[in-house]
Amino acid sequence: MNDFTSGSVTLLHADSSFIKELMQFCSTDSGLYSPWVMVLDRECSPVTAPGTAQLSRYHIISGEKHTVWQQVLSGQTLREGIYCLKALAGFYGQFPELEAAGMCTHLSVPIILRDGTLYGSVNTVSKQQKEDCQATVTRLVSLAKIIARYAEELLVIEQLKEDNYQLALHSYTDPLTQLPNRRAIFDRLPALFSLAKRINRAVLISYIDLDEFKKVNDELGHDIGDALLQDIGQRLQHIVREEDIVGRIGGDEFLLACLGPEKRSDQKMALCTIKDRIHTTLRGQYTFGNLCLWYEGASAGVVCIYPETCSVDNAVKLADTAMYKEKKERRQGAAKKNG
Q1: CA 111, CA 49: separation in Å to the nearest integer?
Q2: Nearest to residue 270, comparing CAs of 201, 219, 180, 192?
Q3: Most buried in the list 16, 229, 318, 328, measured by CB within 10 Å?
Q4: What is the domain-level CATH number for residue 81?
């Protein structure tokens, strides 16, 4: 007998014309009452024993509102391998609606996929006390096979959608820092520019290049260099809001973009604020296992752009130019300090 394994709640819908037609066929051709499909929840662990605590793992997919007794009877018959349950009178005390409806026989057939996975069951009840259920069970088995093929197609479609999502996610994510990569950054910047233009705001773009990063790689090794890049990425994430853009351009370069001030008179303060925040965040001590590294931080070129006067590409180029200017100034300052 198949154990209860994972299934899906979302693949067979009550309003599916295909399922409705199958249910109608089962009802009219077999003279049965109120057929329904039970689908197992793939998010839950396999069910090995009956019990009301496990009822949430069974989901009824049908054209009518389901009741607890449908779950209980379907679950019990499948677990015990009983396709035809004749002694429904034993459940009257627990479920008086069964007695009120005059139900005498319950039939349940598993829906098994080609790989042996138990997907769910097709079920029905009858007011007749059926002594020989074989003919009806045979019809339900055929119905279950049709539903299984239908479900398999939908499962494949669902898997393809998930695979495509993961592929897109991978293509937009830097594998080392888990930040948006260059492609993702440049795909999101036009939306930020459009928003800024619509609400009459500027855009602040910060082009960040780590100072002396090659020296870190050469003297401490690429593993430490990679760890430093990861920590830099995490620190940058802590200084941005959810709607801001932060990502890794490539190598030791990062980019941060956010909405800027509305008034042009506030540009200078906005530029100083974001630049100071970047320097304060990235400069300091980094710990990698037993190694403590004091890092002087990065050069940051920050520009304040009004979208109606500059394109995305030109804005990034301006920030890049500003970064190289600051890097030169920082090197000159360090040389004077050491000289």
Answers
A1: 19
A2: 201
A3: 229
A4: 3.30.450.40
Sheet with 105-112, side-by-side order of all strands: 58-61, 33-40, 118-126, 105-112, 84-85
Q: Which two tokens stand for residue 275?
A: 């630049």
- Of all residues in the chain, what percent carry a pLDDT higher than 70? 80
Contact indicator for 194, 257 with CB cutoff of 8 Å: no
| Chain position carrying tokens 């093929």 | 149
User: Does residue 227 sit within a domain?
Assistant: yes
Query: pLDDT, tens digit, for every residue of 298-322?
Result: 999 999 999 999 999 999 999 999 9
Closest CA to 305 of 207, 233, 238: 207
- Residue 205 and residue 153 share a domain: no
Token pair for 10:
């979302």
Q: Tens of pLDDT along 114-151?
A: 888 888 888 888 887 766 778 778 888 888 888 888 88
102 vs 2, residue with greater confidence: 102
Do 219 and 303 belong to one domain? yes
On whether both 204 and 269 belong to a single domain, the answer is yes
Question: Quick check: pTM over 0.70?
Answer: no
DSSP 95: -
User: Sorting pLDDT into bands at 50, 70 and 90, what band is 204?
Assistant: very high
* Structural domain includes residue 9: no
Give percent of the chain with pLDDT exceeding 90.
40
Residue 1 resides in a domain: no
- Predicted local distance difference test score (pLDDT) of residue 231: 96
Q: How many domains does the chain have?
A: 2
Residue 233 φ/ψ region, left for φ over 0, alpha for ψ in the -120 to 50 degree band, beta for the rest = alpha
Domain hosting 88: range is: 17-166
Distance, in Å, from the CA atom of 190 to the CA atom of 192, rounded to the nearest integer, reads 5
